[in-house]
Amino acid sequence: MTSMLMSPAVPIVLSHPPVLRMTPPPTSKSDCKPVPGIKPPKKRRRLSLIKVADPDDVLKHYVSKVKKPPTEDCPICFEELCCSSGYEESKAISIVFKLEKCKHIFHKSCLAAMYSSGPKDGSLQCPTCKAIYGVKHGNQPPGSMDYHVIPFSLPGYRECDAIRIIYNIPPGTQGPEHPHPGKRYSARGFPRHCYIPNNDKGRKVLRLLITAWERRLLFTVGVSATTGESNTVTWNEIHHKTEFGSNLTGHGYPDPQYLDNVLVLMELASQGVKDEVL
Are 243 and 192 contacting, i.e. CB atoms less than 8 angstroms apart? Predict the structure, then answer.
């Protein structure tokens, strides 16, 4: 009993909880430098959609006719391919098309209806496997994208400075490519600041993000996943890092999955933005 009472005490180490650091220290304009090897941002301008109104003018480039449709359902209307489409007013047997690259099969009128419900940008995306035909464009509202190097490092990338990307989209009125044309949309949380390391991988991602911005793919108008607000500008399924000096929200660093495991590259590729555009 005595030896137990006289045993040395176990030292207690107090640790501080991690601190959320969303932004870098204050940076003067003179401290912001151009990103090496990448042209400065273009002046703010409205990015227009490429319009191809007639679905037939698009489909003819990417499909072939199926003479004997299989006895299976169309993935769009869920009616049998050998019967009329759910988008046909008449009960006549529909024409059936096969997409060239992925070989998935649909009613012609179903593909035409799907195309007409989108931005009508001359591209087509298979609803089954997401293969993209042509150059995909989105319905991102007008705004500006700025980027520069700041003299601070991100956690996990102490060997280089950071690139800061600034997106700014003001509120406006929805166009014909949006869910509710003529209705106002809000734009919460702008300007939005995002961060990537100023190394080879980071600059590659930046080039792809610039292409995605010019194709109007980074943002859309819809329902906010965080607030539930409708008719507002939201991210469009391409993750960005908005937390500068920590990773408490899951949107910061260190995160080797983001660049090293090409998470963001996979998301960009799913929108048709790949290495070959660089």
Answer: no
